[in-house]
């Protein structure tokens, strides 16, 4: 009997830890960089059992058993901002299937290309800990290790500075015009008066 229930099978929402030995039908794994962190999405598709299981960061989000229709889609949310994600299951020939991931209605590739235009990301090591800082250019929100930071904006002679703290460290993102219309505004992260190089995700 096909199950139309979208809820997880664990009522307390605490799925037991999974292991790769149990994931015999694992068909796809994606790493998705969002503002709060890089999320790992895993998909199991049992073509003989009709099973579909979606894991986000190791936590079971969707489990469906005995799905007689082997193609279709599974939609779920990822991250602190509850970003919409959809796994599309398409038959390509006979019993071969193609699995594609969409984020906010765009293919993962298109989403990441657009994201590289709308965000800046820096990774730094402070006080023995790694930090991932993300600036969302459209909202000027700053995220650090999954938390939206409290910020204070300030106009300066050559642009703006968005100030925040990471632990006991003073940080700010400086925004200055490149002078080139195509390049636009250049954002730089300064921590303790030292510029941190940007990474490309």
TrEMBL record:
Q: List the Pfam families hit by this protein, alphabetically.
A: FAIM1
Record's GO cellular component terms:
cytoplasm
* The keyword Cytoplasm belongs to this UniProt entry's keyword annotation: yes
Q: Where does the source fall among the domains of life? A: Eukaryota
Query: What InterPro entries does the database record attribute to this sequence?
Result: FAIM1 (IPR010695), FAIM1_dom_sf (IPR038513)
Q: Does the keyword Cytoplasm apply?
A: yes
Q: Where in the cell is it found?
A: Cytoplasm
An example Gene Ontology biological process: negative regulation of extrinsic apoptotic signaling pathway via death domain receptors
Q: What is its main location?
A: cytoplasm
Which keywords does this Swiss-Prot/TrEMBL entry list? Apoptosis, Cytoplasm
Family label: Belongs to the FAIM1 family.
* Its job: Plays a role as an inducible effector molecule that mediates Fas resistance produced by surface Ig engagement in B cells.
- Full protein name: Fas apoptotic inhibitory molecule 1
Q: Corresponding gene?
A: FAIM
């Amino acid at each position: 009997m096909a199950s139309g229930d979208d809820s997880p099978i664990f009522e307390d929402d605490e799925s037991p830890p999974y292991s790769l030995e149990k994931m015999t039908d694992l068909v796809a794994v994606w790493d998705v960089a969002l503002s709060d962190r890089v999320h790992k999405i895993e998909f199991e598709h049992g073509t003989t059992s009709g099973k579909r299981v979606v894991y986000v960061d190791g936590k079971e989000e969707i489990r469906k058993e005995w799905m007689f229709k082997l193609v279709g889609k599974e939609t779920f949310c990822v991250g602190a901002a509850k970003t919409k994600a959809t796994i599309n299951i398409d038959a390509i020939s006979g019993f071969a299937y193609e699995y594609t991931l969409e984020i906010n209605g765009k293919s993962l590739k298109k989403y990441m290309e657009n994201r590289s235009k709308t965000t800046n990301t820096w990774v730094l090591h402070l006080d023995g800990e790694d930090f991932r800082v993300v600036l969302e250019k459209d909202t000027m929100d700053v995220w650090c290790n999954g938390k939206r930071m409290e910020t204070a904006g300030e106009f300066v002679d050559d642009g703006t500075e968005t100030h925040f703290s990471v632990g006991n460290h003073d940080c700010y993102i400086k925004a200055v015009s490149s002078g080139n219309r195509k390049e636009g505004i250049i954002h730089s992260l300064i921590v303790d008066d030292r510029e941190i190089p940007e990474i490309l995700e």
